[in-house]
Amino acid sequence: MTIKWKLLLLLTCVLIVVAPASAYQECTSTITGNFNGTAIAQGDYIWFTGVLTLKGMGSSPTTLFVSHASVTFTANGTTYTVKVPSSRITFSSTTTTATTDFVQLTPISLGKGWKTELPSSGLAGKDLMTAVEFAVPAGGLPGGIKNVAFTATFSSFATGLTVNWEWAAAVYTSFDTDYTSLGVKPVDDNKASVYKNSDHAGTPENFKASVTGGATGGGGSNFTGSYSATGSCALTPDSSSSITVSK
């Protein structure tokens, strides 16, 4: 084989490896909001949820990854950074029932997180983005915590996508650190999942009786808390970013 053909073969191999990566799209978004005035007792749990709607999907199955997510806030002179599990969310016309499971994700680098399978059309309302619990430390937390920042990176190999998302936080007096035991509702839609009710996406169906006031929720039937302002994040090859502040 001549040197010329060796070079052409090498170039072809490089292009085969690089081409899929060139379609990679990404954006990072932060939404900052405030907790309500209800103090949160030690031993309670804050259930942070993110929800989204995805715009720009084509007819083929579309997978959106949520990674490098965190919630940061300062209370009683201490700054807390809560690492939020990653997610792999796939929209497909062949999916008939919306589901979410807490499992080892692929690629493996995402770790254990939320694997959510959704129909690509016909869903009413918002879809689960990710969720995490935070055990309230000794001494509890005061009401009125300001500048609670939820940050996440969205990525996909599909082009032309825009993510509109929000976060909320509800307080529970009893909870389970085993996320597979929570019964998390994957969508707002009251017919698309096994939970055929009006609860918001992210509701821990098996622990609804333990919800109480605090964070962004008032207890009662508000199982996820009230939503932040909406952040909008357009995925681009060079990455993009957005910051949204709730009043």
Largest sheet: 8 strands, mixed
Distance between the termini: 68 Å
Q: For the residues shown, what is the average pLDDT?
A: 91
Structural classification: mainly beta
Instruction: Specify the overall morphology.
Output: globular
> How many helical stretches?
1
Give unreliable regions as ranges.
1-22
Helix percent reads under 10%
How large, in whole angstroms, is the Cα Rg? 20 Å
The ordered H/E elements are: HEEEEEEEEEEEEEE
Domain module tally: 1
Query: What is the multimeric organization of the chains shown?
Result: single chain
Strand content: 35-45%
Number of strands: 14
Outline the secondary-structure elements:
Elements: H1 3-22, E1 25-33, E2 45-55, E3 62-75, E4 78-84, E5 87-92, E6 99-104, E7 112-119, E8 127-135, E9 148-156, E10 162-172, E11 211-214, E12 217-218, E13 231-234, E14 241-245
Parallel strand pairs: 1-14, 5-7
Antiparallel strand pairs: 1-9, 2-8, 2-10, 3-4, 3-5, 3-9, 6-7, 10-11, 10-13, 11-12
Which key features would you list for this structure?
disordered N terminus; 1 helix; 247 residues; globular; eight-stranded mixed sheet; 14 strands; 8% helix
In brief:
This protein has one helix at 3-22; strands at 25-33, 45-55, 62-75, 78-84, 87-92, 99-104, 112-119, 127-135, 148-156, 162-172, 211-214, 217-218, 231-234, 241-245.
